[in-house]
Amino acid sequence: MNRIQCGITAMAVVIGTIVAGRVSADEVAERLASLERQVAALSADKGEGGLAAGLSSKTSIGGYGELHYNTLDGKGGASDKDEVDFHRFVLFFGHQFSDRIRLQTEFELEHSLSGEGKPGEVELEQAFIDFDLNDDHTARAGLFIIPVGFLNQHHEPPLFYGVERNPIESNILPTTWWEAGAGLHGSLVEVLSYQAYVHSGLATSTSAVYAVRSGRKKVANAPASDPAATLALVWNVPGLTVGGALHYQADITQGEVAEAGSAWMGEVHAEVKHGPFALRALYAEWQLDGDGPESVDADRQFGWFVEPSLRLSRYVGVFARFNQWDNQAGSSASKSRREQVDAGINWWPHAQVVLKADYQWQDNRNGKEQEGMNLAVGYAF
């Protein structure tokens, strides 16, 4: 029996004995005082922490998930794909310690099943503390998502078109990309926000042809000999958002490859909205110094996309997207450039629930082609 039940039971006994006339006035007063002390203790528990605090308004729970079905035909040596996958199951937990101090966490299970020899992973994508310095500026420390592009920080399924995340924000901006560190975020003026952090960095290598996505170590016993820094700005007015980020790392291999040097990344993105019409565009590029990246043409890596969309109603929207990217663009004769066209439809039966269908065509300079259909159901709460 918990303490609340005990208190209720005791109160019932007091009332019963008063009615029966079996106790004195002094005994009634003493028992009532005991009840008051129990209620006060319960209130203190709720305010200070523990299970009761977990049920209070100071703690928030959310999450998102998405189930995918992909059926793709490969040509010229490209692989076929015909599979169903619960790609992501994510839970958010947040807690308000005080008016100025907050915790935010994100816990994810990928591909439904993790463990030795299994396809999935269990990951901690966010776990940071925010400290409000004033109304406009906040300090952040912990494990957090790097503020680059459209999707890295805002990748819940109802928020974007297409079943799969666009290939630019998978291969050039390695979404989802998180690191550990500290910094500041807030507003410089009403329409201009910023984020500035020093954090752990990528650690790619020769064996991965210096592809930036392979450098994500996900803050799991990650090398930290060469920290990185990221600065992001977003200008937002009604109907128009323009943002960009700069990222620098002294050694993108964390000292493992002597022929590698510093790395710079820059990206700019914009979204225009006018009535039911919207247009998104993004360009991102990496510059990797050193003989190692240059030897495999990975000293330059870039990608861009343009995505027009039309909201036919509050429930239905259609889109098309052209993508081009190259993780070995250091040579003009590179055959690693890829292009992909996506077109499809989103249906929102509820603002937080989405069903998606799209068709994709991918053409690579090396002659490999892949095309087919993708279906998904997703949610966020």
Give me the secondary-structure topology.
Layout: H1 3-20, H2 25-48, H3 50-54, E1 59-75, E2 81-96, E3 101-110, E4 121-132, E5 137-145, H4 168-171, E6 178-189, E7 192-199, E8 228-237, E9 240-249, E10 263-274, E11 277-288, H5 291-295, E12 300-311, E13 316-326, E14 338-350, E15 353-364, E16 369-380
Antiparallel strand pairs: 1-2, 1-16, 2-3, 3-4, 4-5, 5-6, 6-7, 7-8, 8-9, 9-10, 10-11, 11-12, 12-13, 13-14, 14-15, 15-16
Describe the structure.
The structure is a single chain. The chain is mainly β and 381 residues long. The protein folds into 2 domains: 3-42; 60-380, Porin. It contains 5 helices and 16 strands. Strands 1-2-3-4-5-6-7-8-9-10-11-12-13-14-15-16 form a 16-stranded antiparallel beta barrel. It is globular, with a radius of gyration of 27 Å. The chain starts with a helix and ends with a strand.
CATH fold description of the largest domain: Porin
Uncertain residue segments: 1-23, 42-54
User: Which band does the percent of strand residues land in?
Assistant: over 45%
Helix proportion: 10-25%
> Which word captures the global form?
globular
Q: How many H/I helices?
A: 5
Total strands: 16
Q: Terminal Cα separation, in Å?
A: 34 Å
Largest sheet: 16 strands, antiparallel, barrel
Order of helices and strands: HHHEEEEEHEEEEEEHEEEEE
CATH class of the largest domain: Mainly Beta
Q: Strand sequence of the main sheet, in spatial order?
A: 1-2-3-4-5-6-7-8-9-10-11-12-13-14-15-16
Number of domains: 2
